[in-house]
């Protein structure tokens, strides 16, 4: 009987999008080891007892080997991993921030209120490219698993060993099986049909390619204090834990990208299903991607883009070229998310976005203008499915920032097509640049902010 493995991933209820990282990892494992590997999408409301029932049926008499990846900081999944480990399963933490989440927040042994990490809940952690799981799995029987690159494990004396991770290898980034993801319904694994996939074109973000010094304001909640700034160093946006996790590892070749696209499922018309292009600066290469698809007789339906407002403005000429191509090819291009984040310059500075309110507004004017020029090929609004970045509340909210934000919303009609139905509260992961900032605030002011799992609750001081 062939060995089996499963990867559990965080998911949203009633959705049908793919999860590229876990599904690509499952593909690599299935094609390069003696294991069949699937992905199980788990929502917050899923009954964990029913998931256990499904896992028992899936593994039967085998010792369960279960990876957890793309967990979105969910404490319920950390706890669930611990339960499965205590019941005899071999549990692996993988995906973004797996190393720092396994080891815990900086200085936690000397600061008991800080996040202790989840090494007690997982047998191993793997940080970096998915193919690092191959020597781990192959070495379980021989005892050579300790040499696997990117591996973290705890010795009997409590010391955590961390092996250097391997560089990204494009050979393992060319294929994704999109039919390897399941959901649990009444204790049974049911295939999840994907309607929106992802294609990896860029690993990390160019904005996170180098460290910068940031001057971040004190929290507005510390009333009675002379509000100053705290200097920290970091990559990318101050709140971005992915920037810390990956930085920027470069772009993939067009051959690798087209290979991924060829793996996408097709709709009834023979076109590839819509996909999100994972590239923070996609416009320079977008015309070539469309031309390559046309040359290879690959029919696309929709391409979803994630952008910064400044790079969007700089790429206007290439976008116009791409939209003319899209018109000829019957393709729809949607800006599914633009990282505006705020419409107040002081908030944007604290986010270290590297953009201004003016560049955000210029980008909105351009998006609206393009809609008139390419009504059938271009989408950008929330009515068309876009969810643009808008972070609120934040630690720096004041009457002044609120007044500025509301003024811009009213003058430019942002609630009509730009603002999402619900803003996203600022999330401070314990390994982000903002975590360094808030720990310095704690040290200076003698305060403790609560930890909600791997997230620092800046909104809630401990009593």
Characterise this structure.
- This protein is of the alpha/beta class.
- The protein folds into 2 domains: 189 residues, 3-Layer(aba) Sandwich (Rossmann fold), CATH 3.40.50; 265 residues, TIM Barrel.
- It is 32% helix and 21% strand.
- It is built from 15 helices and 20 strands.
- It has a 9-stranded mixed beta sheet with strand order 7-6-5-4-3-1-2-8-9, with helices on both faces. The chain has a 5-stranded parallel beta sheet with strand order 10-15-16-17-18. Strands 11-14 form a two-stranded antiparallel sheet.
- Helix 8 runs parallel beside helix 10.
- The chain is globular.
From the coordinates shown, what is the CATH architecture of the largest domain?
Alpha-Beta Barrel
Largest sheet geometry: 9 strands, mixed
User: Helix count, per DSSP?
Assistant: 15
Tally of DSSP β-strands:
20
The CATH topology of the largest domain corresponds to TIM Barrel
First-last Cα distance = 56 Å
Low-confidence stretches: none
Task: Provide the domain count.
Answer: 2
Q: What is the approximate shape? A: globular
